[in-house]
Amino acid sequence: MTLRRIQRDQIRLGMYVHAFEGSWFKHPFWRRGFLLEREKDVETVLASEIETLLIDISKGRNLSPLPVTGAQEAAALEAEAQHDERMAAATEVVNRSRETMRGLLNEARLGKGVRSDAVVSVVEDVTASIEQNRHALLKVLRLKTKDEYTYLHSVAVCALMVNLARQIGLDDETTAEMGTAGLLHDIGKVKLPDALLNKPGRLTPDEFALVKTHSMQGFQMLQEIDGIPAAALDVCQHHHEKIDGTGYPHGLQAEQISLAARMGAICDVYDAVTSSRPYKEAWPPVDAITRMRQWIGHFDAELLFSFMLSIGVFPVGTIVQLSNDRLGVIIEGGRHAAKPKVLAFYSTRRRKFTRTELVIAGDGRSSDAILGEVDPKAWDISQERIDRLVQLATPWV
């Protein structure tokens, strides 16, 4: 079964009607699930009060695409050219940042100090690229190879920190500090053997204890450099702390962990698990976010949802508040350069279930923008109903 929603005036002979939407009393047919074989039936539908219906294109005719005009073809070519241009610009930023980080880390391994001008240059490049087209930069960064991880992980965390900072409304100066913190958060790993960092198997207790020293070693390195923001020192030292106090190096809990370090924890883990390494394959973004949400006590839950908003990736089945006074359930989680699909089903203003509608979640200016996550229990929405809604929407994904 492959369902497609169409408007009443799009109906054609040869289509297989799966269901009419809206009130049953407006339907011109008593049955559901039939092939439109008579012109008279088409005319009956066109004359009815039906607004939309579902057709099964695996059993009947699909909606014929409209002929492409010269203007439409030109617009499509222009859009493709703009996309290619944005991707090329993002790739240039990533390549330039990778080489800068390669030089910085190699110098740090030799005991030389971190050059502040180089750090500022990368953060400014990344921030400008995020402002121009965040999806392009984040997509290019996700394409890094296993061999590039050492240099591009820090660039990716820098970009994710800047992106998250913008999402939660931090000012320009603080955003730049967060980007710097992301870029330098793992600087202490230059003190560890590459063989240990890239070991394909499970670390022994002694090896893991050695790896955990990188946060304090990095903190000590950055303390010796003039002009490093306090946020960078904090994130370097505390990006492995957890909300429940089981992290390291100090076992901080909840509000004892700064906003910068809580942001760093999310951005660091997300890029790590969505990257390919010599000892593991990358997780898809939706899988990564789904699993991260299940690690109760690891991350700041509210901040993690803001992170999801910033990258446009959501776990399937999440109930969200839309900006048009409706609740919806995520049926396709989205990925870089794509927007999540939401099945709207409830009016918060009228406090009642409504006819379902498939929408593509937009940005903050859209009438279908996602504002936040909702506890379904607060609206008497059972898990059974959520599961049914997801199942209902599956053919549209």
Automatic annotation (TrEMBL):
GO MF term list: hydrolase activity
Keyword Transmembrane helix: no
Record keywords: Hydrolase
SUPFAM superfamilies reported in the protein's UniProt record: HD-domain/PDEase-like (SSF109604)
HD-GYP domain: residues covered: 128-323
Enzyme Commission number(s) of this protein: 3.1.4.-
Pfam families according to UniProt: DUF3391 (PF11871), HD_5 (PF13487)
Matches recorded under CDD domains: HDc
Protein name per Swiss-Prot or TrEMBL: HD-GYP domain-containing protein
The species this protein was found in: Novosphingobium rhizovicinum
